[in-house]
Amino acid sequence: MSIQSTYREIRKTVPADVDILLACKTRTPEEVLAAIDAGATDLGHNYVQEAESMAAALGERSGAVRWHMIGPLQKNKINKALRLFDVIQTVHSFKQAQEIQKRAEAVGKHLTVYIEVNIGEESAKSGVPPEQEVLEKLAREISGLKNLRLEGLMTMGPFYDDPEAIRPYFRKTRQIFDHIRSLKVPGLDLTVLSMGMSDSYRVAIEEGSTMIRLGTIVFGPRQT
Ligand SMILES: *Cc1c(COP(=O)(O)O)cnc(C)c1O
């Protein structure tokens, strides 16, 4: 099946209130354009450099979609990231959020951020440990930063062949999300829960995901 029909088929099976973000790593601009033609609204990139070449290749079509940073953001890449992305999904500390705030203010930009939660507490993965108090404190702190709008939580979750094994982690992330929402922090409107990938998105949606991030299932296996 073509990328266009695959995207449309998946879009039909996913509830309308769940956003689909396309994880673009290793994909060509032609492949990404095919998905945009089929109605894709959100693109995710793991590296600033990757997003930069994709944006250049897409030209004016790049304005038709929202751009999300879904990989770790290095301090020396923040300025470039601010020019490219609408959303940074991988904020993991107040210090990092302050760095982004400082540079965003300097260029007069407002942007959306999500906090990345390391729900499996895996040393190889980035993100904030899934402790309610830690996340609550961070959410309150980031809400005070003028140029950042904290709108969501993002998690990768541990990798298992069986998506059912990931379910408890997705459930726990949803509980943390609901808890922070229940605090009704002034100026904080948490609406996005970004979790679920090609192998796990159905389970993630059952556990309350509002944004799934798909690569393989739309574009096919990665060559590299
Ligand atoms: C690659 C990637 C995805 C999508 O992975 P697939 O298994 O190809 O669907 C989602 N989120 C992040 C952060 C990724 O790097």
TrEMBL record:
Cofactors, names only: pyridoxal 5'-phosphate
Sites of N6-(pyridoxal phosphate)lysine modification: K25
UniProt domain Alanine racemase N-terminal: residue ranges: 3-222
UniProt keywords, alphabetically: Pyridoxal phosphate
Domain of life assignment: Bacteria
GO molecular function: pyridoxal phosphate binding
NCBIfam families cross-referenced by the UniProt entry: YggS family pyridoxal phosphate-dependent enzyme (TIGR00044)
Family, per entry: Belongs to the pyridoxal phosphate-binding protein YggS/PROSC family.
Function: Pyridoxal 5'-phosphate (PLP)-binding protein, which is involved in PLP homeostasis.
Name of the featured protein: Pyridoxal phosphate homeostasis protein
Annotated source species: Desulfococcus multivorans DSM 2059
